[in-house]
Amino acid sequence: MTWLTGILASLYLTCLFGLFLYGINSYVLILLHRRHRRAAEAADAGVRARANERSEVTLPMVTVQLPIFNERYVVERLLRAAVSLDYPRDRLEIQLLDDSTDDTREIASRLVQQYQAAGLQVVHLHRTVRTGYKAGALKEALAVCRGEFVAIFDADFVPDPDFLRRTLPYFGDPNVAMVQTRWGHLNRDYSLLTTGQAFGIDGHFGVEQGSRAWAGLYLNFNGTAGIWRKTAIQDAGGWQADTLTEDLDLSYRAQLKGWRLVFLPDVVCLAELPVQIQGFKSQQQRWAKGSIQTARKLVPSILRAPGSWFKKYQAVIHLTHYAAHPLMLLVAIASPLLLYLDWFFASWRSVFASTAFFCLATFGPSALYCYSQRVLYPDWRRRLPYLPSLMLLGTGIALSNTQAVLEGLFQRAGDFIRTPKFAIQSRQDSWRTKQYRSRFSWTAVGELLLSVYCGIGVYLFLDRGRFLIGPFLVLYTLGFGYVGVLTLVHSLGPRPAAAHRVSIALNRWTLCLLLPPAVLLAFTCLAF
Fold first, then answer.
1. Where in the sequence numbering do the catalytic residues fall?
2. Residue 412 near residue 445 (C-beta atoms within 8 A)
């Protein structure tokens, strides 16, 4: 068994070091955010002051693009927000990019006709063949749009009326290609699932995007709630459909061409978070697969481009950050086996070393998410107790995201799996009786089996006195179990009352079970 032990040990150490690199980078981004935040706020204040002096006559032509596919529940809300934008009517064009195959097409057509009758410049562009999916729709619409600037909003977003007036002033710099705004949440408190997602999104927009933008690193357009200079899109090669993250791809290509991207944390565009776990998982899989595809496509160009080694390193970390999920999965699988084979955990020195790496890998992202709450919300202390909901999701989706990462490594593009939207904004709203519900996913079986396996690992670690390593496997056990059970619950038929009670009970018991290991993890982190 010596050869097997050696292979497992090498795999374990490699994965642990990889997690350490991704985890420690969270601290780097926090430091960059703290270093550059004041200067960025002062610069934004200067841009806003100059914008107040701008004449209405000089405002440019803007096209608002609304890409949709089977969005019968939210298309009216989306169009209403678009036509409510505070901007001169003669310089605002709205394109509804509709690839729908259901009655969304008829609903959209009726709404567009109503707005056209009211004198608004709204056009309905329907495609019967979804060539290139969203990227293809944006590419075709760009060819016929009349705007000098192009704002993009996905179906689940609701921009404020002053969106254009707050973003356009930054294009006074002729080198600026795109302005990205922060995502807000329409239904953050709907469930433990939406609360966890909100934590993750807040970490990305509250810390990561600002750190990258202000420190001169590569920044990404998030696909929505942003506005582009049309000539920059064309100069960078236009929208391309050879990855599932056309937004990330275009962002990097534009910056490699010398364009600059801007991030505005104070301009918030509210959006609906996925309320069904299968929808959330498919969204994460699309982002994971697409980012790895983009890394395959562009990392060689990034490494050859001018710039510091630190900027290039951060770009690679950024494009490959979903690789953390297969690393987590392999660590979870290898840990109990290595303990059983009596390797690496035989001495307290090795246990402490492993725990230190685990802490740096685990608490780096946790520190970033906590810091983002403090930056974004005055009542941040009240929100922190719900951080375990993100910890559950982050570990529980490791299996499905690992599948996506592997597909991204070996496949080009692929099917664009949409995230269902149900117009859910309050806890009284229900999605179970609506169309677009995702069906059962067989990954739930793998997640439940992994939960049992990691639970056995917890027993082995505690039985052999390795108390410092045990809490990490507890987190994996609960994470895989939570996501697996929630997938089963959300796959039930339209039985709202029973399913709602099961979901509430699952949320409560999960929080109760996760709080003790979360406390243990905190003490472990303090020990190092």
1. 99, 247
2. no
